[in-house]
Each structure stands twice: as C-alpha cells, then as structure tokens.
Amino acid sequence: MEDTRSPSLSPRIFSEKEVSKHCTKDSCWVLLGTRVYDVTGFLRMHPGGEALILRRSGKDISEELDGPPHRHSDNARRWMEQYYIGEIDRDSTDEDTETLRQRKKTTEDITEEDGSSDINKCAKVDEGKDLVDWRKPLAWQVGNLGEKYDTWVHQPVDRPIRLFESDFFEANTKTSWYMVPIVWLPLVVYLSWYCYTLLAQERTRVYFTSDYSILIHKYTFPFLFMFGMFLWSFVEYCIHRFVFHLRPPAHNYYLITLHFLLHGQHHKSPFDGSRLVFPPSLAAIVIGGFYLVLTKIFPEGLGTSMFVGGLYGYVVYDMIHYYLHYGSPQKGSYLYGLKAYHVKHHFEHQRAGFGISTTFWDHPFKTVIPKQTF
C-alpha cells in the first residue's frame, strides 16, 4: 500500500500511555503495528458501528483488517492512511517522547503551516503525485484522465470536492438532506388526496377491449401506492447500474466529465454530506419523466396513484442513502445490513451491489455482492 505521507516530513512520536488515553468518541486512536491513526471522525461512518472501533481503541487492529468477519479491501486500507498521525515508541517514557518531540519541533511547525488550508486539513492527498490538482475545481480536469479515470474515481478519499470555480454553480450542486422531504413530501400528501378523491368518483376504468373494462375502486389506492414504491425500486436499480455506473469511453473527455458530475464525484468522496442526495432541480427531471410515462400508459387515476407511490419511494431512497453514509444503525437491523452492503459497493465491489434501499433487484440480475469466506 502506497504511503501517502510526504517523505520530507518526520512523523510525530507517541508513547503507549499517551495513545491509551484516546479511547472515547471524542478522541479515538488505533494502531497498525507502530503506526498511530486518529479515527475519531470516522466512527459514525464505520459500517460495523462505533462500538466496534471503540472496543479496539489504543490497540493494534492489524488482524481485524484481515478478518474475520470482514477482510478489508485495498481501498479501505488506503482510506485508513488519511487518519495517520504518527508513530508509537513502545519502549519510551513520556519524558523520552517529549524529548523526541523537541527534536522534531521545526518539522512539526512546517507541517502545521502546510496544513493551515481547508484542503490540507480534510485529507492527506499527495498533491504532487495525484492525477488532478486538488487546489482547483475538478469538473474540467477529470476528462483528461482518460484510461486512468476509472481507477482514480474508485479510490475514495475523505475530503470535500469542489466542482466549479463559480460559487453560484458550485452551490447548485450541493443539497442538504432535509431539502428532499421538504420539497417532495407536501407533493406526496397532496397527490395522495387527489388520487383518492379521483378514484372515489368511480370513473377510473382500465379497458381491455371496447366492451370489457375493470373499475379501479378507491380502496385499491394503498395497493397502487405500494406498487408504485416497488416500481421505483426497480427504476432506482436501473439508474444506478446502467446510468451511474456506465463506464465512459477512455477517449471521450465529455462523457468522462458527465459521469463524474452525475456519480463519479460521489464515489471519489463518498462521505461528502452536501452531495449525498439529489438537488431538487435535477431530481425533477427524472420525476417528471416518471410521471409522464405512467400517465400516458394508464388512466389518470391509476397512473397518478402509482406515480405518487413511486415519488414517496424516491424520498425514502434518498433518506436511506444519506443514512447509510452517516447513520449508525443498530447491529442486526435491516439498515445495519444495508449500510455494510453499500459500503462494500463503494470500497470494493463497484460493479455489483447496485441496490440501495433494497437488495432485491441484485438477485435476479445477479449483481449481489458475494459474501467473504475465510
């Protein structure tokens, strides 16, 4: 695994006693051999839960990375290097450690100066060796990566991404999670009432022939609503697999750029909280298309009833997706399994595990993430 530190900087030195003090949610350190990592900021994101790391705080987790229950991928190990803060000297006392620190004081002062910008505080990326310049917006750089793009975009980092130079365009690519229910749930409530009253008029029929039709009763609305949610789960799977994970041609600058804007940036920075849900303006395009298709194929009452269920399914999907990245579900729960499944998709199995709110469609399409065996 490539060391992401600059070779010119000397590591900080810690004693065993000092490392052992960092065993709480507010400050959690772990070891890999003699290397010390401050994983405090990763606790909530860890798919196994906070407690799993806290129980091992101050200890060497080398064996746990190899499993069981889970063998961590190369991406996970690379991700770990972003939290590296120094080395442990197991034979030193606190006084010895303080002496070593005084010797390295000049180097550490330089390190603090280099890390004064927001970019350097977020993650340790070797800007001299990385394929893009992180000090500049990435949107117009990634298209130049060519055949290296697919490998680069699937090596995640823990840092925010800036896409555009313009503050206006940049702001429109970010959305707080609560905007999704604020914008769409009122529409779900209104359309649910509208569909029920429309079906209650007993004028909505499905015609099989000119002489034979079936009346769609108002009491069928809950079933149509649920079917719409089920239909959305299929649309969700198809968009994620066939649009977001369509591998752009290595020679096409524009398709690479488009892929990065749609989904690549999420895989490069999977815990950028401002880009975990769809901006309402972009989502409206997909939602509008979903509505037009259903109302053209079916009578208004029937098509709109399925649409509103699908719209609610979309809201649930976006909320689950955000929670899978930032939530801490209880071990053994449905969301706990989904979180572990989705994190594997990001870190190891980018060509499988396309279901987010459910893994149902991964089974018939044979894209289930395989279980590890030891």
Summarize the structure in words:
The chain is of the alpha+beta class. It has helices spanning 16-20, 50-54, 62-66, 74-80, 94-103, 105-114, 118-122, 149-153, 167-171, 179-200, 221-244, 253-268, 280-297, 300-326, 334-347, and strands at 12-15, 23-24, 27-32, 35-38, 84-89, 205-207, 213-215. The strands form 2 sheets. It has a 5-stranded mixed beta sheet. A two-stranded antiparallel ribbon has the order 6-7. Helix 10 packs antiparallel against helix 14 and helix 11 packs across helix 14 (300-326). It starts with 11 loop residues before the first strand and ends in a 27-residue tail after the last helix.
Write the layout of secondary structure elements.
Layout: E1 12-15, H1 16-20, E2 23-24, E3 27-32, E4 35-38, H2 50-54, H3 62-66, H4 74-80, E5 84-89, H5 94-103, H6 105-114, H7 118-122, H8 149-153, H9 167-171, H10 179-200, E6 205-207, E7 213-215, H11 221-244, H12 253-268, H13 280-297, H14 300-326, H15 334-347
Parallel strand pairs: 1-5
Antiparallel strand pairs: 2-3, 3-4, 4-5, 6-7
Structure at a glance:
The protein has 15 helices and 7 strands. The protein has helices at residues 16-20, 50-54, 62-66, 74-80, 94-103, 105-114, 118-122, 149-153, 167-171, 179-200, 221-244, 253-268, 280-297, 300-326, 334-347, and strands at residues 12-15, 23-24, 27-32, 35-38, 84-89, 205-207, 213-215.
